[in-house]
Write a structure and sequence with these properties.
The protein is built from two helices and nine strands. By secondary structure, it is α+β, with helices and mostly antiparallel strands. The strands form two sheets. A five-stranded antiparallel sheet has the order 7-2-1-8-9.
Length: 166
């Protein structure tokens, strides 16, 4: 076998792997670079995992969608995209303003995935931190907190920061 062909194959394989990693990284960073900042109310669930490290697992007020707001509840499939419209509340915290299975043409919305009849996951349910900060955050978030979330134009969200309620 020709050594130059093998060398070209190895280089092509390495370039392909780097390209896949770059695409994954850019996809995760896209909302942070281009998104609109919103504040959401959060409720902590659990702060640590032996396998994933120290983190605060979060649940959002907008994680439960009223069944009456989705006209095709019987057609909901596990892991299906759902779009939740948001509006600013009086206190600056964004709140639920409806949901649909079709992407809204305009306005602020966040894209999630159906996890049950009314349960939605947005991919921002875990906030990783150093051990000391995670333990401190656990203590401070017992009564709830606020999450700074960046939402891109396509509804994809990225968690920026979590703070306790003032």
């Amino acid at each position: 076998m020709n050594k130059s062909i093998v060398l070209k194959g190895i280089i092509a394989g390495l370039v392909l792997q780097l390209l896949v990693l770059a695409v994954e990284y850019l996809g995760a960073m896209y909302p942070l670079w281009t998104g609109q900042e919103v504040t959401l109310k959060v409720i902590p669930v659990d702060p640590r995992s032996l396998f994933r490290g120290n983190y605060a697992r979060l649940n959002f007020d907008i994680s439960t969608v009223p069944v009456t707001d989705i006209p095709t509840v019987s057609e909901l499939r596990f892991n299906q995209f759902i779009y939740v419209r948001l509006k600013p509340g009086d206190d600056g915290i964004s709140v639920y303003d409806g949901a649909s299975l079709a992407r809204p043409a305009s306005g602020l919305f966040i894209r999630g995935r159906v996890q049950g009849d009314q349960n939605i996951k947005y991919g921002i349910e875990a906030f990783f931190a150093a051990k000391e900060k995670a333990l401190e955050l656990e203590e401070k978030l017992r009564t709830g907190g606020l999450a700074k979330v960046m939402i891109a134009g396509n509804g994809k969200a990225a968690l920026q920061d979590v703070t306790p309620l003032p």
